[in-house]
Amino acid sequence: MKVILYSLWESNKIFIAVRLKNIYFFFNLGHNAVTAGVFMENGKPTKNAKLVEKFQKDGFLVLENALTDSQLSALNSDLSMWIEESRGNVKSYGKIMDGRPRFDLQLDTHSFDKPALRRITSPAEISQACLDVVKDNQALDLVSEIFGPNIKHWTNKINLKLPGSGTEVKFHQDFPYEPHSNEDIMTVLFFLDDVTLENGPLEVIAGSHNGPLYSLWHDGIFTGAVSAEVEAECRTKSISCVGKAGSACLMHSKLMHGSKSNKTQSARSLFIVSYTAEDAVSLTENPLPSELDGMIVRGKKTGIVRSTSYSVELPEYPQEVSFFDQQSKMKDI
Ligand SMILES: O=C(O)CCC(=O)C(=O)O
């Protein structure tokens, strides 16, 4: 006879399952589960523990249904409005806290008929739908199991690859853009569209979060991209993160990643939220400053700084609208 404690994903109820000769008998204990979605065996959570273990090994994982249907449709409704608005603009526009434009256009391909809006910085400052997701989503539950229990918000942005825009991302690790006192920094990329092999999915190098940090400086210029040699090596090993709209890729800040352009006639948009352990203190100015920097989203503020030992070249504070312009400096090298 095997006894298993089981918490149903949606119901928050705890059941006890008794297995007799391969037949399960379920009894509702009538209690609310502490963590929805956790499979309990002999009193210990197993389901998320496996995901945490997988994340620690690979440095990333794709989680389905990280957003509810209503979160996804609220985000996409704001995004459609912003894309429509972008048609009438001929240069990047809007303003974030440090005065740089909030809405970034890929100017070489942008037109009224084929808008090439490629980045919206800190949309959670101007959209309730984005703010709601920053504060609560299924991926954040996992982040707090991985780095938790105390988690704060660092940055949020939307990256778009509209059809014909040609927008691509050169390989890099996020950490050298955002060094902190410790390495518990997570980038969560929510899929606002189905992400396929053809529409420019995120490509990652499994396990690279446990390897070296690669320089984003070349010939004295901060390009935000690794050297051509490292990029060529990455291309031979990358794994594409595909999935349905509403899924999310959780990615360690030290994981090497990049993405190619969208070859299809439909959009590929990501809402990207970075979270840090509450005791990770930034060593540089936030490159995407917002009023939400440091907002506690899980647990509490402790006021403790935790440090690990590593070396990294400090990044350059961006003068450009977004990292796409920083990365375009690679062509000058
Ligand atoms: O939009 C993408 O495909 C990748 C995003 C990314 O690499 C980043 O924002 O650091």
Give a short synopsis of this structure:
The protein has helices at residues 47-58, 69-87, 128-135, 138-147, 228-235, 323-328; strands at residues 2-7, 13-20, 23-32, 39-41, 44-45, 60-63, 103-105, 117-121, 151-161, 169-172, 185-191, 202-204, 217-218, 221-222, 239-241, 248-252, 257-259, 268-277, 296-298. It has 333 residues and is an alpha+beta fold. Bound molecules: 2-oxoglutaric acid.
Q: Can you give the mean pLDDT? A: 87
Looking at the structure, what is the overall shape?
globular
- H/I helix tally: 6
Please bin the fraction of helical residues. 10-25%
Reading off the top of the CATH hierarchy, the class of the largest domain is best stated as Mainly Beta
Give the number of domains.
Answer: 2
Structure description:
This protein is of the alpha+beta class and 333 residues long. The protein folds into two domains: 1-36, no CATH class; 39-332, q2cbj1_9rhob like domain (Jelly Rolls, Sandwich). 19% of the residues lie in helices and 28% in strands. It has helices spanning 47-58, 69-87, 128-135, 138-147, 228-235, 323-328, and strands at residues 2-7, 13-20, 23-32, 39-41, 44-45, 60-63, 103-105, 117-121, 151-161, 169-172, 185-191, 202-204, 217-218, 221-222, 239-241, 248-252, 257-259, 268-277, 296-298. Strands 6, 7, 8, 9, 11, 16, 18 and 19 form an eight-stranded antiparallel beta sheet that branches. Strands 3-2-1-4-5 form a five-stranded antiparallel beta sheet. Helix 2 crosses helix 3. It is globular and about 50 Å long. Residues 1-15 and 22-39 have low confidence and may be disordered. It binds 2-oxoglutaric acid.
